[in-house]
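Tutorial sheet, problem 5. The three components below are modelled jointly, 186 residues in total.
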Amino acid sequence: MTILPRTFYSRDTITVAKSILGKKLVRKIGNKEISGIIIETEAYRHKDDPASHAFRKITERNKVMFEEVGKSYVYFTYGMHYCFNVVARNSKFDAGAVLIRGIMPEKGIEIMEKNRGIKDIKKLTDGPAKITQAFGISKEHYGVDLTKDPKLFITDGIKHGKIIASPRIGIKDATDRLWNFKISIK
DNA sequence: CCCTAGATTTACT
DNA sequence: GTAAATCTAGGGC
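Model answer (structure tokens):
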């Protein structure tokens, strides 16, 4: 297995959102490992993207979107949930991130079931806030470098077929952009 | 299957 | 004050 290098993330946010499909997210907790294949993502960019947290200006919450690519952007929303993103952009933009929206569990399924409090594998990691729960990701992982951190990183994964593009979920602006990407796993 | 309400931090039309 | 890159439980069909 190979950890994705910084250069992987220094391309256009849309390109990275598509390229990261089929890759593997790995989380180590003590001597246990949780991992899964990324099967759905969304791209959020900068000045050209009214739906992005970074659209208006830099704030305490979104500042990592302006920092080095390959870091994690974890944000808290709806008063209850964390969502996990990877900072990615090319030199044309000052900010950008890819939201990890769907994962197919591989290892550590028992731990995920415990973290989520349910047994239904289909509902384990089929939403952004479900992933952070299952993987034990929260505020303490804000700004973590995913190319270097021993407990949270992304490696190369599997081959897959065609990518399905759709409007992004849960936003009201810029719904004409097909910046939600997913692959189907049999 | 579908729909609705409620959980309650953060940022600002 | 209120809307937000969400999820769950509970009720109806």
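Marking note: Chain A has one domain: 6-182. Full credit if you identified this.
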